[in-house]
Structures are given as structure tokens and as C-alpha cells.
Amino acid sequence: MLRYHIDSIPDTRVTAPLEVDLSLSGEVASAPAVFLEKETREEFSRIDGRITGEIGRDGTDVHVDLSVSYEIPLTCVRCLSEFVRTGETAERTMFFHQKDSDPESLERYGSDGWVDLGPWLRELILTDLPFYPLCREDCRGLCPVCGQDRNQKECGHPEDL
Length: 161
Description:
Structural class: alpha+beta
């Protein structure tokens, strides 16, 4: 669960933080409005991995320390073949209470007391993904003349076209 009410988050001045160990694919499935937006639907619908870490609070300030390990299928921009990107990212942040919080603002929660880590986690993963995904660093791409994948077979056309 990536949504916590402030009352269910342990106050670390008194007790240990809440341990988190969740399935990433399960969390994506349970929050489609957060993860399966139009521009990221294809990638996130097939993501797999784990979310681990701790959540605690000091008064109304919520401390979040999470690590995400993931496997996500991507398409190479040169040869258009699908490949699996394995990655790991971690971040520590704090969520602050804000009256009349804008639901789109990250790292804030409103007077209802619900802290939603979904949008923050989505951005954490997206910023870890390559902007220009390549199946491998030396990918030769597709031939502009015949469309042959040059990683699989030579077509005979010059590469400098």
C-alpha cells in the first residue's frame, strides 16, 4: 500500500519506523490512475520489482526512505527491439502537512491526513529510466534503405547513409 494515513505512521520519537516491503507490480495494479497514465501506460503495465524501506514521522512531518529495484521492458530507439532494463534507485524525502494541499503537488499532504507515495514513486522511477533507451551501447540500428536490423544481419547497404 502506497497510501498511508498520518495516524497509521509511527512517530519515530517514540517507536521504530514502519518497515515497507511491497511488490512493485502489485502497487501499479492497485493504483492505475497514478501509474498507468497515457504516456507511461505501456512501460508501467509490465513493470516488476520490489519497494523496500521505512516510513516514519516526527510530529506531522513524514520521513520516507525507499529503495526500488525494478525490471521494465523498453523499446530500443535505434533498432526497435524490446529489451528488459534492470534498475535500482533510492531516495529519502519528507512529506509536509499543508492545508488545502494541491493533489498534484508532490511531497505534500492535505488536511485529510492521507500521504500518497504513488505519484512520488512514479516520478522516482521515471527519472531513473533512460531518455534514449538502447538495447546495448553499440546498437547499430535499422538500415535506412531496407529496414534490416543491423545487429542481426548485414544487408549490404553502406552504414553511412
